[in-house]
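Reopening this ticket.

The earlier resolution said the output was attached, but the attachment link was broken on my side. Pasting everything inline this time so it's all in one place.
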Amino acid sequence: LYTQFGEDVLPNDILLGLKRLGFLYVHDQAYTSEISSFATELYIRENREKKDAPFPLISPLCPVVIKLIAYRFPSLLKHILPLATPREIVTREAKKRVAEKYGRKPEEIKLLHITPCQAIADSVMEGASRKGPRQDKAVGINAIYEPLHRSIQEIDDDKVLHHSGGIGLGWGMSGGEVAALDRNCLAVSGLHETIQYLEKIEMGLLQDLDYVEFRVCGVGCLGGPFAVTDKYRAKHTLQKLISIFGVERRIKYKYVIDLYNKGWFFSDKEPRSQEIKPPQLSSSEISRGIERQNRVEEIFRLLSRKECGACGAPDCRTFAEDVVDGDTTLENCVFLKKKER
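Inline output:
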């Protein structure tokens, strides 16, 4: 959200704009991300030398990656960091704190999550059927952008609501989560790259790494479908914000350590292996899926695999899938045209 209004609009302006729209309370999730980074380091330090500890650990942040692991790489579920995500922490704590502050009952507080991501919006809706603290609704940035933009222009308040530094802000960008960790880490973005590196971890490779951040969107959450601003402009704005707010942690270390030792950061949800169940497919659906995959492989072998992108697809395998799905034709591959000549 902080990247959608240009580098001249600061995070505090956006939070004040939200308050002006009528929200009782707004939370700077980037600050929660910042303390979560330190909690992740504490967990790695505590478990790195334990026998049979599953390393590398995998970031739990991207819901698409978590579902991908559950469906296709279930043996890697134990690698997922067992700490709650910043969004889960905010969900758990916000209603309780707001209810106490304003003298309301927790069930009277409605929690809205603003997101650039369809998958996160879906996970919020899926969570509506679970017991315990939950977000009541998710709304895309594009749905709230116009009224929020007008509200920002009319701000007449100088209250400070933004408390995070560049470390917390950086989580929205691919590589931002691991940039905050003083450990041996790797950031992987893009669906095909994610699958490739999950396969490597499944084969027992990369055990020298402490942590891997996976993001299905190429530039991270900045590229989500509900974002308004071009993802590269958003990335530029975020880099500017990180430069402005710096990369020093703005947290009280002893306070975070105490919270960690009390179990505050650990997820109180069911084990992720039980949380996500693979879909039940009929034999005909399985057959069609296998047939489609075989056809994709046939077309992929015909291609140059130069990953030039001239066809409009991000890579040759995606182009092959698009051909099979009827979204394009082989004639759009410039290298196949050259062969025909």
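Reporter confirms the inline version is readable. The first helix runs from residue 11 to 20. The two ends are 49 Å apart (CA to CA).
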